[in-house]
Amino acid sequence: MTTTTPSRHWLIEDFLASIVVFLVAVPLSMGIAIASGVPMEKAAAVGILTAIVGGIVVGSLAGCPLQVTGPAAGLAVIVSQFIEQFGWDQLAVIVFFAGVIQLLAGLLRLGQWFRAVPPAVVEGMLAGIGALIFASQFHILVDDTPPGTGKQFGGVINLLTIPEAVYKGLTAPEHRSAALVGLTTILIITLWVNLAPRRIRFIPGPLIGVMLAAVLAALLDASVKYVQMPDNILDATGRISFDLDWSQMGLSLILASLALAFVASAETLLTATAADAMQQHAPRTNYDRELLAQGIGNSICGAFQLLPMTGVIVRTATNIQSGARTRLSAILHGVWLLLFCALFPQVLRLIPVSSLAAILVYTGAKLFKWRNFATFWKLGKGEFLVYVATMGTIVIVDLLTGIVTGVVLALLRLLYIFSHLDIRLDLDHEGRKANLYLSGSATFIRLPKLADTLLRVPSDYELHVHLENLTYIDHACLDLLTNWEKQHEKAGGSLVLDWESLTAKFRPIARNSRNHEHSAADIRS
After folding, report:
1. In this structure, what is the dihedral angle of CA atoms 182, 184, 190, 192, given to the nearest 10 degrees?
2. How many CB atoms sit inside 10 A of residue 256's CB?
3. Helix/strand/coil for 466
4. Does pTM top 0.85 for this prediction?
5. How many CB atoms lie within 10 A of CB 12?
6. How far apart are CA 414 and CA 59, in angstroms?
7. Mind listing the pLDDT tens digit for each residue in 331-353?
8. What residue ranges in 317-420 does DSSP mark as E strands?
9. Backbone dihedral angles phi then psi of residue 150, each to the nearest 5 degrees
10. How far apart are alpha carbons 519 and 27 in whole angstroms?
11. Cα separation of 79 and 398, whole Å?
C-alpha cells in the first residue's frame, strides 16, 4: 500500500501540471513562431508542432526530467536572421545539422563544457535578444511589418521606429484596432501576474490575456489579423532537401548550424541548471543525456521543416511550480497540444496575431533586466564591459557576432586576470628593511618585472614579502624567490616570507618549488 500511494499521487500531480504547461505553451509556441519569421500561413502550426516534438520525444529522453522543451524566444532572433539569409527551406538543413552536432556533443560527453559560458555573456545575450524581440514585435502588435526586416542594422531600425508604430496605433484606422487588442493583452497579463488571487494564479497570464483579447476583437468586430491554422496540422510540415549548391552555401550553412547548436545547447543546459535549483523531487540533470535528447529532437524538427527547440525557462518553471514530479508532465503537455490542434483547430483561428505579439513584447521586456547594469558594474568593470558589449553587438549587428564578441572579451579578461600582477616595493633606509607587496597573479609572464623589482633591494636589507593579496603564483615565480633568497642571504641580507601560509594557499606549487631547492630544512610547513 505504501509503495503504490506515492505513485498515484505523483500521477495526479504530473497530470495537473501538464494541463497548466499546455495552456502556457499554446500562445507562446504560436507567438514565437511568428516572431521567428516563419511564413504566416504556417507559423502557428509549425510552432505548436515543434512544442509537440519537444514534449513527447525530448520529454521522453531528456536528462533533466522536469525541463520542458519547445520553441524558444531566445532562438527567435537567430532563426529570423537565418530565414532572411538562407530562406525558409534552407532553415531545415541548419536545424537538422544543429541537432546532429548536439547529438555528437552528447556522445562525446561535452555537456559540462556547454555550461562554461560566462554569466555576463549569457545575461548580455538574453538582454540583447529581449531588446530585439521587443522592438520587432512592437510593430507586429499594431499589425505592421517591422521596418528593419531583412536590412542591415535591422534591430536598431526597429528600435528607433517604435515611436512611428505608436503613432500608427493611435492615428491609423487599419492599425488602431490591433494596437487596442495588443495593449489590452499586455495590461491583462500584468494585472493577472500582480493581482490575481493565489488560488487561481496557476492559470497562465498569457492564456487569460489571449482569451480576453480574442473576445474583445470579436465584440468590436475589429479588422485585425488572425492566426492561420490548417484543418490538418500536419499540412504545415515539409521534408528537408539537401539538393543545394554546397560549393556556394555549404560552409555558411555549417557555420550557421554550429552557431545554432551552441546557442540552443547553452540555453538548454542553463535552464536545466535552474530547474535543478528549483526542485527537490526528480534526479539531478544528466547533461550529456540532455544534449542527446535535444539533438534527436532538433534533427527531427529539421527533417520535417519545423523550428529549432531548447529547454525553455518559463514553461519549465511553470511545470515545477505546478507540482510536476516526473517527466510524464512534459510528455503529457505534448500530447494535449497534439489532441487540441487535431480536434479544435478552429479555436486557434479566433486568436488575433497582435495579442500573440503582445505576449512577446511583454516577454522581451522581462528578458531585458535593467538591474543587470548595476549588478555587473558592482562585479567589476571587466564584467560590465563583457555584458554591455555582448548586448550591444547583438542589437546592432547580429546574435552570433554578439556571442562571439562576448566570449572573446571574457577570454581576454581572463587572460588579463591571470597575467596581471601589481608589485610595490617600499624601502626603509633607516631600518634597512624593505617591504614587497604582491597583488594579483604571479606567473612567468610577469617574471621579468618581479626580477627587476628584487634587483632594487639593497644586498644587506631584510626583505618582507607580503602575499595576502596574491591570487595565484606559479612554479617559475616561486623558483625566482627561493633562488633570490639564497643569493641575498650570501650577500648579508635576509628574506622574511611566510612559507607556511604560502604552502597552505598554493600547496602543490609551493611544495614542488621548495623541494626543487633540495633542502628539506627550507620547508617550514
Report:
1. -130
2. 24
3. strand
4. no
5. 11
6. 37
7. 999 999 999 988 888 888 899 99
8. none
9. 75, 5
10. 73
11. 11
